[in-house]
Specification:
Layout (H helix, E strand, L loop, with lengths): L2 H4 L3 E9 L5 H9 L17 E7 L2 E7 L9 H15 L3 E7 L6 H9 L7 E6 L6 H14 L4 E4 L8 H10 L18 H16 L9 E9 L5 E9 L2 H8 L4 H18 L3 E9 L7 H7 L7
Parallel strand pairs: 1-3, 1-4, 4-5, 5-6, 8-9
Antiparallel strand pairs: 2-3, 7-8
Helix pairs in contact: 7-9
The structure holds guanosine-5'-triphosphate and magnesium ion (MG).
């Protein structure tokens, strides 16, 4: 490569899109080397765009984790899917994830067919190769490349980190020339209070079953640094019904206590300080129809 052009800074916004549960958030964390996006075994964990930033040589890569793309029914789901496609349209490069263990199903095919509208260079990322049938990988890569035009194909495990450096290298080489958008040491653009709310939401997703995680949302109400260097944080968990509030609290408050303990540990890590976490559970009927809650989440409120 020409020495002089190689000196120039590069900067790329790289969107990670794919079906729910494909491993987009896990991959974002692996690419950045730090836990920024929450992860769960459940579908539709991510609700809005989450940015993770990393520097590789002269390039700054800004990864955008997006909500999973599926056929939405409810208003919140529609907002999530619209946001995901918006994230892809605004990016310089797009990584399309497919869960290699699952292969290409109807949901995956639908995403591939819509990619024709996305002009930016796209790369195919077959994820979860650690758990996938190796023999099927090549067939899957061929099938996906027939359905959409990809500039490159990568086989990775976001969980073990296998193949992630190769992907990062390619993205670095294809990042447009231009100044960096963030200071070199910044790894996320989300304020700590939103990251903290997301962490508590992750614990809800991990602990609660069926519809409850989808019918709840978390907001950080106060974040106060105390004189002794610790932080006092108050958060509200909104649920739709009183029966759900009781489940979140658990018998003798056991569930909320466990959620609080897990969240506090992770929040202390990102805050780099001891944390006192106070969780409140409020019933707000129809919060998922309330524009204010969408603003708090960083989502556009779909009018219908
Ligand atoms: N075995 C294996 N599991 C993985 C890998 N990457 C992600 N997972 C698991 O897949 C599940 C979903 O991961 P997420 O990162 O939350 O997936 P997502 O695409 O962000 O999901 P949504 O936000 O719901 O769209 C979690 O249980 C992860 O631990 C991988 O490379 N290998
Ligand atoms: Mg996610």
């Amino acid at each position: 490569m020409d020495e002089s052009t190689d000196q120039e800074p590069r900067c790329a916004f790289v969107a990670l899109i794919g079906a729910p549960n494909a491993g987009k958030s896990t991959l974002l964390n692996a690419l950045v080397g730090s836990k920024i996006a929450i992860v769960s075994h459940k579908v539709q964990t991510t609700r809005t765009l989450v940015r993770g930033i990393t520097v590789e040589g002269r390039a700054q890569l800004i990864f955008i984790d997006t909500p999973g793309i599926f056929a939405p029914k409810r208003r919140l789901e529609r907002a999530m899917v619209t946001t995901a496609w918006g994230g892809a349209r605004d990016a310089d490069l797009v990584g399309v994830l497919i869960d290699a263990r699952k292969g290409l199903d109807e949901e995956g095919e639908a995403i591939l067919s819509e990619l024709a509208d996305i002009r930016q260079p796209k790369v195919l990322i077959l994820n979860k190769v650690d758990a996938a049938d190796k023999a099927a990988l090549l067939t899957l890569a061929q099938a996906a490349n027939q359905s959409a035009a990809f500039s490159a194909t990568f086989m990775v495990s976001a969980l073990t980190g296998d193949g992630v450096p190769d992907l990062k290298k390619w993205l670095t080489e294809h990042a447009p020339k231009g100044p960096w958008h963030y200071p070199p040491d910044q790894i996320s653009d989300a304020p700590l209070r939103s990251l903290a709310a997301e962490i508590t939401r992750e614990k809800l997703f991990l602990r609660l079953h069926q519809e409850l995680p989808y019918q709840s949302t978390v907001e950080t109400d106060t974040w106060k640094e105390l004189k002794d260097g610790s932080v006092r944080i108050e958060q509200t968990i909104f649920v739709e019904r009183d029966s759900q509030r009781k489940i979140v609290l658990g018998k003798g408050g056991q569930t909320i206590k466990a959620i609080g303990a897990e969240a506090r540990r992770d929040i202390a890590e990102i805050a780099e300080a001891p944390v006192h976490l106070f969780l409140f559970v409020k019933v707000r009927e129809g919060w998922s129809e309330d524009p204010e809650r969408y603003r708090e989440m960083g989502l556009e409120f779909p009018r219908e």
